[in-house]
Amino acid sequence: MDKKEIFEIFENKDFDKSSFKNSQIIIKENSVVELNLKPTEEEICVDLEVEKYASFKLVILNEKSLKNFKITANLHSNSEFYIYFADFSLNNLDVETTINLVGDYASSKVEFASLVKNEDKKKFVVNFEHIGKNTSSDFKGFGVVQNKGNLVARGDSHITKPSVKSSASQLIKVILFDKESKSTGYPILRIDCDDIKANHGCAIGTVNPDHIFYLLSRGLNLNEARKLITAGYLLPIAENFKENEKNTIEEIVERSI
Amino acid sequence: MKKLVIKDLHVEVENKEILKGVNLEINEHEMVALLGPNGHGKSTLFAAIMGNPHYKVTSGSIFYNDVDVLSLTVDERSKLGLFLAFQNPYEIPGVVSADFYKSALNARSDTKVSLYKFYKQLENACAEVKIPFEMVNRMLNEGFSGGEKKRNEILQMILLNPSLAMLDEIDSGLDVDAINVVSEQIRKQFETQNTSFLVISHYARLFTLIKPTKAYVMINGRIVKEGNEELISKIDKDGYEWIGEELGISVEKEDTAMNKVSIGVCGTKEAIKKANK
């Protein structure tokens, strides 16, 4: 692989989005950086360092192009790294994030919401390696799968022995709109330390006909009822986006169902 | 005239006939009680009127306002003016209550309700049923107490303003204060909006408060007796056996077979222990 270009980011305005493709990025100490991406390329591969007391929020709205997204991050003490990934692309997608919570009090959250349709296959793999003390990780994955789509969501939180007082949380919720659609969830916790907090949950299922009946009984037609249920899975992530992108997400959800 | 007319209605669930020829009429602006022992078809009647797909109407007719209800979809029945307050309202994760109410209001209007008007309407309805306004931002019925769910049903009734409301044990799980709040709203809806009511309850207290003028008794899947508030009082005092004796019918006992999958983790362990002994 080509040698990656190294970018050192000191504050928000230093960020050139075009650099975020195949690079090594360093969020410098005490920096607070937010990056909103609407990928136009098929592949993004990044090595990331978040230095101590730095905070990095990565917000991705994938409408069409991105097919492969890989990020490996090292978080140093008291740093934060958040990824919010809204995916409405009409193609296969492979996402893999590996976040090493190296320093004490490092924290990270990865949340995705994905719409899968037209026989597309999408895979989200989110790995957290807790190494420092008092680290925290949170993985939330929400999916709506229809028209023979296939969604795999895998969270793997490993709390190593030195990582005392750390916490890990995982939640995967996927709704299937037809019998041909598939989804598999793996909320994996690997715990080598006694003094920690962890929880995980996974719910994958079809639309409950009783829920549909309840909504219809208030005058919503079937399409509106399905849309409302779908919105419940895909819209909450919009809270983390800027106003114009929130509207875009709402419009996409509206026309997707 | 908005009138509900049900003739010789037969309904089955999973090939078992539950309703065996129901005849019933509700006039415009009428408060009607529907009584009967557990498991005799009262809730099935409501489900069939509202169009629950689990319930199969095998024969008979339901007309409301001269419209053939059985030919309509569930949402069309709602738009016709029918409303069902569920005995066990469903928790729907991911659906924000306020979004649901707004969609329901928009569904019955040609133009979208303005956000300001909607919030005022919702704020007033919340105040009427004494639900904190913040609750409308929670997921629909998720984590609500039994009483909150029932109040939420009444809140929806107020918002949607139906011409015929069917209330299925709206008083179960409510404390005394909540029963007073709910019954007050039922009376208010009846008096100010001319909504007709068909109300199932096992407790005379609710009927004392909402004052039905007509009562039907359903036994063995049929309406076997019609009366007024005196009939409600007599049933409250003497139960249903006397009706069976009077009419020469035996009152079928509720099927109390255990749910096959209702056993909990501890129960499972006990069962395994016993089986291994």
Question: How would you describe this structure in keywords?
Answer:
heterodimer, A: mainly beta, seven-stranded parallel sheet, 3 helices, B: alpha/beta, Rossmann fold, six-stranded mixed sheet, 12 strands, 25% strand
In brief:
The complex is a heterodimer of chains A (257) and B (277). Chain A is mainly β and 257 residues long.
Question: What would you note in describing this structure?
Answer:
The complex is a heterodimer of chains A (257) and B (277). With 257 residues, chain A is mainly beta. Chain A has one domain. Chain A has helices at 209-216, 222-234, 243-256; strands spanning 5-9, 22-27, 32-37, 43-50, 55-62, 68-75, 80-87, 93-101, 107-116, 121-130, 136-145, 150-159, 167-176, 182-191, 197-206. In chain A, the strands form 2 sheets. Chain A has an 8-stranded parallel beta sheet, with no helix packed on it. Chain A has a 7-stranded parallel beta sheet with strand order 3-5-7-9-11-13-15, covered by helices on one side. The longest helix of chain A has 14 residues, at 243-256. Chain B is an alpha/beta fold and 277 residues long. Chain B has one domain (4-97, 161-276): Rossmann fold, CATH 3.40.50. Chain B has helices spanning 42-50, 74-80, 97-107, 115-129, 146-160, 176-193, 204-210, 229-238, 241-247, 265-276, and strands spanning 4-13, 16-26, 31-35, 56-64, 67-68, 82-85, 92-96, 139-140, 164-168, 196-200, 214-219, 222-227. In chain B, the strands form 3 sheets. Chain B has a 6-stranded mixed beta sheet with strand order 6-9-10-3-11-12, sandwiched between helices. A 4-stranded antiparallel beta sheet of chain B has the order 2-1-4-5, with helices on one face. Mean pLDDT of chain B is 90; it is low at 257-272.
